[in-house]
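Supplementary Methods. Inverse-folding protocol.

Structures were first reduced to a discrete structure-token string of length 187. This string, shown here, constituted the complete conditioning input.
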């Protein structure tokens, strides 16, 4: 997906994963109200995030992070009534709705954050190298790594899921992991 539109009450949030944006440039396609991008000089992922009311853009920002490139898909963000929490590169950003202020950001993986899920008041992040639990206010509660990256093309799409009792992940070599919600490995 290059562009995604989400509805939050009367607002429409648009996320564009291919913004025409250059940090510090005066001729960007849009005038951005805020820039939440730490340019680390390598493999940055950038998203243009805009919020509209009745087809009128109220605010437009840029978020960005280093690490591997990410894409927008159904499990790369969580939209709640008053906030958008989204994976971008190696970082998870939390933005307030409707003003798109940065509530917090946390580097949740050493490489790339693939997916984010709500667990009670917190978030579980499926990263390339780590599975992480992040609190509602953006604190990294725990991280667990594996022997290889947490994705497996031969698993038929079941390389990561969450049950009521545990978090399940499969690494590139097919090794399976189960973690409880306190970050402990269980078998």
């Amino acid at each position: 997906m290059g562009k995604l539109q989400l509805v939050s009450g009367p607002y429409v949030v648009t996320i564009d994963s291919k913004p025409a944006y250059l940090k510090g440039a005066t001729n960007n396609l849009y005038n951005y109200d805020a820039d939440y991008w730490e340019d680390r000089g390598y493999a940055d992922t950038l998203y243009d995030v805009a919020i509209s009311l009745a087809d009128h853009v109220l605010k437009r920002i840029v978020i960005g992070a280093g690490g591997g490139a990410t894409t927008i898909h159904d499990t790369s963000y969580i939209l709640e009534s008053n906030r958008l929490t989204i994976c971008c590169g190696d970082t998870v950003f939390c933005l307030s709705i409707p003003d798109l202020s940065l509530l917090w950001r946390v580097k949740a993986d050493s490489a790339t954050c693939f997916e984010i899920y709500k667990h009670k008041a917190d978030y579980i992040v499926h990263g390339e190298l780590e599975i992480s639990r992040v609190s509602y206010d953006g604190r990294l509660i725990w991280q667990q790594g594996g022997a290889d990256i947490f994705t497996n093309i031969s698993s038929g799409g079941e390389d990561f899921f969450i049950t009521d009792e545990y978090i399940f992940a499969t690494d590139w070599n097919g090794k399976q992991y189960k973690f409880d919600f306190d970050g402990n490995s269980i078998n």
